[in-house]
Structures are given as structure tokens and as C-alpha cells.
Amino acid sequence: MLSLLSWFFPNALVVFAFIFISIYFYIQHNLSYWKRKGVPSPPTHWLFGNFKDAILGRMSAGNLLGKLHKEAGDEPFIGLYVMHKPFFLMRDPELVKQVFVKDFQVFQNRYFAAVKSKDLIASTGLFSINNPEWKYLRMKLSPVFSSGKQKKLFSLMIESSENMRKFLGDQLNENEKVQNVDAYIVSIRYITDVISSLAYGVRTNSFGQDQEFFNRSREPFKKSLIASIVLFVIFFFPVISNFIVLFHTNILGSSTNYFRNLFWDVMNQRERSGNKRGDSIDPLLEIKHERDKLDFDIPDDTLLAQPVIFSIAGTESSSITIAQTLVELAKNPVLQDQVRKNIKEELKEHGFTYEGIKEMKLLYQAISETLRLYPPAPIIDRVALQDYKIPGTDIVVEKGTAVYAALNGLHEDPRFYKEPLKYDPDRFSEERKGDITPCAYIPFGIGPRACIGERVGMLQTAVGLATILRDYEVALNPLYKNGLDPKAIFIEPLDGVKIDFKKISK
């Protein structure tokens, strides 16, 4: 026995030492990927790479990418690691334009959608679906967001904003004030009613008594640890996303059948009547009739995925933009008065009309500045479909590598903006907007895969803000924590947006 033990322990130590040394060199090899390519890279953690704070839940991926962007000096690009997986972050606007626009044929698809999830509703919306399905869906759905359709949708925006106006008016106290209102939730209710018609072809009133549509539409935004982990994995490790599906229901959760039934009820009714109303249902009906002739599959849940993504993306982006614009104007009463004056002057000349809203230049400047500092989706990602040589260098981004632009990095980069953290709507004035470096401001993305709903989003945001600011002075409530959730992948208030509203005397 003693002889056996005397043989085992020395040899076991040799085996363990060999395994340890092998793992060490394996890690060192993986984390030297960018160095071997001549790409600058910040210091890395042996296990977490550059994403320790995001993986441990201390900071969102978007904020972390923005932080890494800001710390990289004058480098046009840097190499990063999520765990040991290499990613490429672009910091030069010209390179961003080259990759996302000029060389779109190489970067057609988003990285996080590289593998189709079992949850088709989440993974095959226009935002995430791959080519050639993306190109076909984009072509079919683009007319819904045309200027002509915007004008038709405008009357619904007015109706929805009047519901919001009445809601605030009903809460006025004897001092003509409405205090401690969560402007974020109020904005969500207003935008939900606009988007429900555009996306699903149904009329709703989220300020009324029937709250079912509104409540169910919030299902994708329920917070949980599992949901956060799933979202992180989908964005950065899409290949393994299907292995965690057992721990997470699909994007609509318990409301999946509600929206399926609603969608198909509207689709079938529209098909029987033959009426066209200019919403997303019309082109989706065309797709339903054409899909047997296509070279790719468009399942029923992919049809449903389109209004779902319009609803999710459109509601959140416009709502947070309205809320954060109110926050910034509440901080600066002088600027708030200037914006209100601009609103009232155009209302006096044009009335509350499409043309009148479009003439509210200072209001649009304020919205644009809010989107600079608070881009709702702070990450733009693509995946290389083939090896790609960075123009002007010998560096090759290998096929399958994810490339990123961090919007809160670009938008707050002192190379492109003087006093980048200052809220200054005048940056977007006619006199100064030409000074903005092209592709250093891209809140709606850039290139063929830029946000399809940009114009609708800007218009509904302007209508909502004009409705509030013409009637009320806004101030921050003392309970407002003045912050965004640092752990949320998309821009989101930490604890609501608490605003006090004071009725303006006529």
C-alpha cells in the first residue's frame, strides 16, 4: 500500500500540474487573439475578458461598451473579449460608415440573431431576422412608415395625446398641480395607444378602464434574473441561447396566446372585408398570400413577430425619449420656456396639425439632443459573413466575428462634441448641425438596417411633448432619483421619472 501511495501522489501532482499549465496557456492563447492580429485591446480578466462588470451584473453591456470606447484614446478600433470570445469595437465614424453602409453586403446580419431561436416571435422580427428574409420583409413593410402614412397616423396620435391630456387634467389639485407623476409610465400609455393601431390594427385607450391590452403589452419587460441572463446570452452567445430555453419562456410570456389570437382575429377580419387601413396588417396579409412562392420559410409566428417588435421597440424608445426630454427641460427652466414658446407660436399659426408639429424646430432639437445622450438602444451589432480586411490596414476581421458600435461612446466622444455631457439642443440648429461629424450621431442606427420607424418615432415623440408642454410647466419631484438603471441593456429609468406638473394659466 505504501509503495502504491508513493507512486500515486508524485504522478498525480505531475498530471495536475500538466492540466493547470495546459489551461493557463490555452487561456493566454485565447486572450492574445487581438494582439496577434495587431489590434489594440484593453487589459483583460483571465476568465471574464473585458466583460467582468456586465457578467457580474454591475453594469449593462451597453454602458460597459460605452465606457471601453471612452477609455481607448484615439484608437479607431479596439479588440475586446466577452469571456474568451473576441469582439471588435469600432470607434471611428468613418469606419462605422464603411462597415454598416458601404460594405453592408459583408455585414448584413446582426450578431445576436446569427442563430435562429426556438422562440420565433422573439428572433424573427424585422429587427433581428437574417437575410434574405429581412430584405423581403423590409421591402413589404416600408410603405407602412412612409410620409403619407405618417399623416394618416397623425390623427391617431392627436387622439391618444388628448387621452393623456385628459388624464393629467383629471388629477389637478386645488393649486392646479399634478405632483409626483411617473412621466415614463404616462408616456408608455400614450405611445402604446399609437403603436397598437400601427402594429396590430386595433384601437386602445391605455388611460381608460379597459387595461388588458396595456397590461399584457408590458409582459416582455418584466424583470427577473433569468430574463437578464437570457438577454445577455442572446446578445453575446447566440449559439448557446437555445440551451437555456428551458429556463425561460418566450418573449410574450403568459400573454402569448392573447396576442396570437388578437393578431389572427384582425388578420382574418381584414382578409374577409378586403379593407386596407395603412397599418402593418395590410402587408402582412400580402406576405401570408405570397409565402408559398418564396424560397424561404415565413411561419405564422414570424408574421406575428413583426407587430410584436414594432410594439416593443416603438413603445420603449419613444417613451424613454419623452420622459428624459422632460427631465432635461425640468432641469433647465429657461430652455423649457424657450421650447414652450416655440410650441405655442407654431400652434397659433398652424393649429395642432401635422405641419404645425413639423415646424417646431426647437422641440425637435431638444428631442435630438435627448437621443444623443440617451440612445434607447445603445449598441449596434453586425456579424462578418466573410473575412473582412479593415480599409487602410492589414487587419482582417475573421468570418463570424461580431462587430459593434457603442452609441453612448460615439455620442459622448470629446473628439466629436464640445462639452459632450452638456445637454445642448442648439447642437442641432440649422447653424450648427453641419458641425456634427457624420456617423458620430446614429440613435436610429445607420445603413440599410437603420430603424424603419425613425420618422414615426420622432413624430409621436414630438406630439406627446407638445401636448404636455403647451399646458404644463414641468419640474423634478424631490423623490426623483435622477438616474437610469446601470444594469439595463436598453435605456431605462432606475425608479421611474417623477415629475411635477403645474398648469399654465391661459
What does this structure look like?
The chain is α+β, with helices and mostly antiparallel strands and 506 residues long. The chain has a single domain (31-503), classed as Cytochrome P450 (Cytochrome p450). 49% of the residues lie in helices and 8% in strands. It contains 19 helices and nine strands. The protein has helices at residues 2-30, 33-37, 52-55, 61-70, 93-102, 120-123, 133-141, 147-169, 183-200, 212-217, 225-236, 256-273, 281-290, 300-331, 333-350, 354-358, 361-373, 407-410, 454-471; strands at residues 77-82, 85-90, 177-182, 379-383, 388-389, 396-397, 402-406, 472-476, 498-503. It has a four-stranded mixed β-sheet. A three-stranded antiparallel β-sheet has the order 3-9-8. Strand 5 (388-389) and strand 6 (396-397) form a beta hairpin. Helix 8 (147-169) packs antiparallel against helix 9. The model has no long low-confidence stretch (mean pLDDT 89).
